[in-house]
Amino acid sequence: MTLPRVQPIIPTWRKEPFDDPEWVFDFKYDGFRGLCYIEQGRCRFISRNCNVLSRFEALGDEVATVLLGVDDAVIDGEVIAPDETSRPQFYDLIRRTRTPTYVAFDILWLAGADLRSFPLSERRKRLRAILPAKSPIISETLSVTGRGRELLELMCSNDLEGIVAKRLRDPYDPSVRWLKIKNPDYSQKEGRGDLFSRSWRRPAHSAPCRKIRDGPADDALRYRSGARPAEQAQKYGAAPSAYPGTGKIGGRGEGRENGNCAIFRFLDGASVRGPPTGAGIET
What we know:
Elements: E1 12-13, E2 19-27, E3 32-39, E4 42-46, H1 57-66, E5 72-80, H2 90-95, E6 101-110, E7 113-114, H3 120-130, E8 138-140, E9 143-147, H4 148-157, E10 162-167, E11 178-182, H5 192-195, H6 229-236, H7 262-273
């Protein structure tokens, strides 16, 4: 069976966070967006510009191994390089100095069934059903329903990139609005404008992906200055990697047991309290 070539949803920027019980708020992971295509025992990551992310081929082999019971699927997520506290380190991902892992936040196809018309809430249930527990290779995104303001505040206080807001009833379609709300003081954002060549980026509402191109990795890995990734990363450096007590943000870190974690206390409390009531964002 030939898997569909999916045009991913590109989040649009929003300045202010909001609360709304009909929306889920995901951690915004700092890495490379990648659609995960699993078929015939193989897995490969495809960028939003339809290029094979060949630098993550080994990670794809690991994902195929841990999802051995999945014959065919298309998963949406982010490839990150977590440090010892599981905090994403973007420049280490470019340097290839840390082992990458995959954080999944959506599933669009599974076992011959197209799930894109299903609401996000149902797709998340299907995703959880196939993900292995406590895997260092692939994990589900961390999220909370309804409480965007408090989650962004925690992201800012812990020097994380931000959040992405998604309406729970929405299908998966390029016209759907996902809203990225960033931490304005995020320490790892410095130098991004010089790092990537904007001329290679696909507009948010461009033509759908019709053909996957082999060859170089994601267009975003082409550099304006022509320098190799390690040289650029050395130029701009990386944020400190010692963040005691931040807990498991994604992948191969120590997990919830890693000290006093305000983020996980918030997530656990939110799941008990339930989402807030009242108006949030205009629909």
